[in-house]
Structure formats: C-alpha cells, structure tokens
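Key idea: predict the complex, not the pieces.
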Amino acid sequence: MIYGISYTALFFFIVFVGLVLGLSFYFGSRTKSASSYYAAGGQIHWSINGVAFAGDYLSAASFLGICGMIAVSGFDGFLYAIGFLAGWMVALFLVAEPFKRLGKYTFSDALNSTFNSRLVTLTASISTLTVSIFYLIPQMVGAGDLVTPLLGLPHWVGVFLVGVIVIVIVATAGMTSTTYVQFLKGGLLIVLSTILTIYILKNGFTLNPDHKNQAHHEFLEILPEVKDGKVEKAEDWKVITQVEVQGKDFVSLEKDGVSRWFDLVQSDNHYVLKEVLSITEDENGVQLYNGEPKESGKFYQVGHLSKIIVNGKEVDKTGTVGPFEYLNIIKESTVVRFSNVQFRDNNRAVSLFYPSEVDGKDFLLPGLKYKIGKGASLWSKMDFVSLMLALFLGTAALPHILIRYYTVSSPRDARKSTILAIAAIGTFYIMTLFMGLGAATNGVMDVESSNMAAPLLARAFGVILFSVISAIAFATVLGTVAGLIVASSGAIAHDLLDGYFKKNLSDVNKVRAGKIAALAVGVFAIILGVAFKGMNVSFLVGWAFAIAASANLPAILFLLFWKKTTAKGISWSIVMGIVSSLVIILTSPTMWGRYGLDPLSAIHQLENPAIISFPLSVLTLFLISSLSKKKMLND
Amino acid sequence: MIHKPSISHKPDYASKKKAQLGIVFFFLYFLFYGGFVAIGVINYELLAIETFKGLNLATLYGIGLIVFAVLLGILYNFFCSRYEDKMEKEMEGKEVEL
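Result:
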C-alpha cells in the first residue's frame, strides 16, 4: 500500500515519543544503583505495576497481531487472545508469589536461589536471551509496519527508529522508566480500544464501506469468451497471459497500457473474470501495484461483507448494533477475505491477492488458519494443540514478564499486580474480537500486512483517532522492546559477565555493562526486524512463547514443586527446550518458505514446536535430576 | 554468587496454603481450557452450535475462558489475602505469648 504523511499523525507521534523520552530522562537522573536499574528498586506501587504488566503484555502481538489475524483468519486470531490470557493463570496460581520470594534481578537468579551453579547461570541467561530475541522480532516488525502509514516512511526506517529510541530509553534509565512508560501506554491503549470498539458498534455494517478519506473499491468483473478453459477474449481488454497456480487460473489483461490480473471463476455454467490485487516486480526491480506505480494509489484497501443478513432478511446496511447482535450478524452474513498466491511469469515475480467469500459462521469458528475441522490432518490438529499449549505455558516463563515481579515490594503486591493485569488484559482481548472483525468488514485491510488492521480501522473513523492510536501502538512497541532489552541486558551483564565469568563488577560497572549489552541487543533486533518484514506478529510471538514454555517453564515448575530437582537437571532441560524448539521452528513450513523453498516439502508440517519440545524438556529434567545428586547452596 | 530478594519482606506464614489453593485453581482452569482444545480436536462440529444470545459455542467458550480467568483471579486474591491476614494474626498472638 502507499501511504502519505499525515501531519496530525506526525504531531501525536512526536508528542508521545517526546513524552516517553522525557519520562526516561527524568527517571534516568534518579537511577544510581543496579537494583534501581534492573528492578526499579522494588518500590513500584502494585496498581501501577499491574497496569504496567498489562502494558508489557499488550505488545505489538496483541494490538497489531491479534486484531490483524482476526481480520484475516476470523476466530483463529481470537485463539491467540484466549491462549495469551490463559497463560496468566499459570503465572498467577503457580509462579508469581513463589518466584517473587526466590529472586533478585533476573530469571537465572531465581533458578539459582537454591543451587550455586554456574551451569544454571549460563543456560538460564542463554535462554533469556533466546526468548527475548524471538519476542523482539515481532515487535520490530510491528514497529516498521506502523511507521509506514503513520509517517509515510519505509518499513526499515520504522524498525531503525524504534531500535534507536529504545536503546536511548534503556541506556538512560532501565526498569523504572520502562515501568512508567508501560503504565501510561497500557492505560491509554485500553481507553482508546474501548473508544474504537464503541465506534465499530455505532457504525454497524454496510455493503459499501466508504469512508471520508477513502472510497470503497468495487472490483471489476468481466465476462470472457473461454475455449477449453483458456480465455480467448475479454470484452475490450487484451489477453496477455493465463497461468494456473494451486488449481486456480489467473489471467493478465491489458487496457490503455495498464495490465491487471484477474481470477477466472466458473459459476452457473459460465465464466467470470474477477479483478484481483497484484504486485509485480520485473528483473530490474521495478514494482507495479495493480499495473501502475505505487504512487498512483490503485492498490486498494479491502475487506467487507458481500451479504448482510439481519434476522433472516438481507439488507444493504445496518444502523448501530449491540455487541451480541454484531457477532450474530457476522455469523449469518458472508465475509470477503483475500488469499495470496505467488509465482513467476515471464521473468516477473507476481504476487496476487484474490477475494473469496466465506460464510460468516465459518469465519467465527476455528479452521481458516489452524485446520481442525473439515480437511484437517493429524499435523494440523497437532499444530492447533501445540499452539494452545505454547500460549498457555509460555506467559509464565517470559523473562521480561518474570522480572516485573521484582519491581514491587512484596509477594502480596506481586499477586495483586497480576490480578489487575489479568482484568485489564482480559477486557482488552475481548475488544480485539470486535476490532479485528471491524477491520475485516470495513474495507480497511492492507493485504500486504495484516498487522495494520486496527490502526487502519481507526483511520477510517477519523485521522485524530488513527493518530493517537498509532502513536500509542508505537509507544507499545517502544515499551515492550525496552522491557525485553532490559531483560536481555540483565542476562548478559548480570548473569553472564558477573555470574558466569566471575568478573565481580562494581554496581556502577554492572549498570554500564548492562547499557552496552542493551546497545548490542538493540542493533541485533533492528537487523531481525528488517529480515522478518511481512509476517504476522502474533504468529511470530507464538514461537517466542513456545521457546519460553519449553526452555524455562519446566525449570521453574520443577524448582518450585519438586524437591529432588538438581542444577544439572535444570540446565539440561533448558538446553533441551531451546534446542528442540529451535530445530522444529527452523525446519517448519513457514521457515521453509522464508528459505525460498516450497513449504509443503518441509521435513514436517508443524508450525509450533511446544507439543514436542515441552514434554522433551520435562522428561530431560526428570531423568537427569533423578540420576544426579542434589548439591545445595549451603552444602 | 548468592542473591537475596531485592526487598526483604515479612515471613509469609500462609505460603503453603496459598500454594495449595493455587494448584487447585490452576487445575480447575486447566480443565476448562483443555475442554475447549479437546472439543476443537475431537468434536469440532460442537463448536458451531448456537448458545447464549445466539453466539456459537466457540465464541461463548472463548469469551467465557477470558471472563473465568478474571473471576478466578479475583477469588484467588480474596482467599489468599484472608489466609495471610489470619495467619499473621495467629503468629502475632504467638509472639505476644512468647
């Protein structure tokens, strides 16, 4: 899509980034000790910490990713919301308070509270780094996606901008500023999502979702003359080529020097050519969007209902609807969604996005992304269970969430913070259902990136709402990335340098090492953010959850609940969790596609590794602990 | 390298009871969550049946899981706070007797 710069958006963007940096510098001047840098001195009020928890958690994956995935894949996107929240139950009931009693700054401190093992320190810090980096990738991808429509800048500039600002934030102040940024952002995100949801319900549905700043595009339909399945004539268009891809026929036609792609569809014994969205790139790297340069603005926003049914009657539009009525109308109606095919034609890379109609009742059931009903295979069912397992078990093992338990003064406050976070996050997640469905039916989708569904929906309702929401979403990314970089820098400077390599750093040097580590992780995150452009951020976060669940959670739970747990058992289970989940991810169909290979030829069809890597890690911990002698700290 | 907690807090006399309650609540939620996953895998068609206010079971169950999490969390905090207050009072009484 082509986006122009919006000066209103730019104004809000500068205000928010300025506010975030101002907070950072203010708290930076008060950060003197390592305790203050890594754990905010343990003095944050539980209510502020609770909202900050929500802020930490409602990252790009939640706001951008879930809304985007619901808009594209219906209920399958909502599975992420369900799983993300369910994970808090593990955190609250099993981990929050005991963990608070164990540690000081980092995940490895907590694991090492009963052992004095360098191996535990090493493996736990590597695990923290691995999970944080996998969690950083989607945040950076989301940042790049946001900056494009917000400021009219390329994706890589957004990634670079976030990287630089966050490095400044983290290098300046650490956990205290991160907490207040997350508090501010978490609170504002919930308020603005509520406003957006009210707008969605107030507007209801229409077959032609025109908005002030964009007219809904009616896709062309041409009646061709077809012989033996080949298009011979197409009204006043010149037939250029016909290509069969994945069992479908696509035809390129030309008129007035502009070529467009069409989907050849057979209905009721006659053929129809239906216009699709296309991106072509020739061997010189020249890209055309629907046959014209990007700037021509012919690459349209999409997503609407092709049939609206209210109480059994077909209508063109509805007025304001209630939340239950909203969901029921979608269930009875027909949703138009877009699928993507890519192929080469005459030395051009061609990417087509073609519309297909889906019954609303299917859109509101799992199955469009994770096949568990019709057409399901054993792999697809395993993938669904694996995803739900990773989401459920991953939250409580995320290092940047775990370190937030240390920022309050007591286990009771840790618990109260967690409950406030669950209430805030739960409310938000229910709203994502409406925001995602709103984006799917209001003609605002950018087919190139599902991540922009919610901000683009806001833009349809007014530029100020869009500007504020986008600025907050950007702050969301800033805050989450800052939290992750604090966790990563803690793992490097505190665990590896101080703990494993026994450098015996002074308090001042420990903070300095943390800041240098933050810079290194930040630069690495920028590179990965550019490399993974175009992927749905929730999907990417699913991987981070799977690695956290496999590498960290068995270690945490065994340490808390099984007295025979040994340092060796913990260390090797972490290694097993990381290695097995990474191997499965790196050989998954999605990564196969990233390597330029056919995803169907991948050595397995599992996208999410938790169903294999979590049990493997648990088994490793049990067996090695059973076989090795326990060496306690006070032995 | 030995690290102590960042803030020294009062002894938590109710920790054992709270941990037991946590495990019970965890399994309660796990069963509810597992039920959703199991229906999806074993009897997918069931997710399409119409339920409360016309919502299909998938949507109702999904929203239900979110609401249940919040309610269970509030209930857990209520019981834990009660245990803590009760145990603290009991221990204060013992200290005075000593």
